[in-house]
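Lecture 7 notes: from sequence to structure.

We start with a single chain of 398 residues. Read the sequence below before looking at the structure.
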Amino acid sequence: MSQSLIAAQSEFEELCDHIRESGLVAFDTEFVSEYTYQPELCLLQFATQDRCAAADPFQISDLSSWWDIMADDTTTVAVHGGQAEVRFCLNQHGPPPRKLVDIQLAEGLQSRSYPLSYSALVSRVLDKNISGKETRTDWRRRPLTDDQIRYAMEDVRHVLEIWEQQRKSLENQERLDWAEVEFERFVTDLVSDSQREPWERLSGVHKLSRRDLAVLRELAAWREQEASERNRPVRKIIRDDLLIEMSRRHPKTTAELLATRDMNRGDYKRAAPKMLQCIQRGMGVPRDELPKLKKNLQNRSYDDHVLGKLLAIALANRCAQMNVAMSLVGTSADLRELVRWHIESRSKDKTPRLAEGWRSDVCGQLLEDLLDGKITLRVADPHSDYPLVFEEFKDSSN
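Now the structure, written as tokens:
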């Protein structure tokens, strides 16, 4: 397989033409996110069946031909843990990928290992060893060394071969449709996340009142604007936990604001008037216009939590039986959502993820029967990978 580093626009356009003709391409990126508002794209790597190439975005002024390909409905783009690649497509182009394959996800649908690193996946599927990733490389520096380029190319060189073996295996297990659903969900979730307001992305929001949320909304919007204008990461402007604390305390003066631990930095003192204005605006929002949390971010009841823990044991056992990664089937939040939906007599809210599609086939009915008391679970073999068995409940009182 030939390989090259592309730094000219004409060569990049020719590569894109080749990718269109191939219809299938592996894709990866190298980027740096510590210093700028948005991660800085430093290298793009591609592999088809015939070619392996890297493109230098510092030399190529227009990457739109590639983003057009990534978002079309004719070219399959294969990635490994492709969150960053999808986000670059959304931020730099707009429309999301239409035919994305993620080999990390695919492996989790036929084994209990998720997420597997790229090198571990190459070793497992292809029985090959590759060098570790240059995790401490500053990909912004030029010129790139031969070692950097070689490592970067390695990140896409084996992706298509892995996917071909995974595709055949998933098809044999009648799980290929699972993978197609998950690839689409993967992209949809990233699109939804990109559309959330800044305050909704912060941890700890479920502990705040609606008035607190109004204050947080103003503070988070200010921080986002500051980060964009100064081209700095948002958390370098001010930390998440400090925004949450200010939203909870509602300081009215500079002295009150700076009394919070870790707020005595010079840049925080300089920004104090703007932050106090944000707090004042949040406090002035009319009661009927206060923001609300989405249902999946609201506080959980104790019953949701306890029953979710019980279902997690059953789910772990079922996933071990079926050799699928539990973290892909359902999270703790998914289990609590199922509990709440079931207890509320299958409310008119959207059907929970565990009760639809392939997840329902794997565990949905089992978990609902467990909640209804129709089945019981007991330990059969404590030395087994899946020690529990599920049995129909028999009422001995009758």
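Strands lie at 2-6, 24-32, 40-47, 51-55, 76-79, 100-102, 375-379, 388-392. Keep this in mind for problem set 3.
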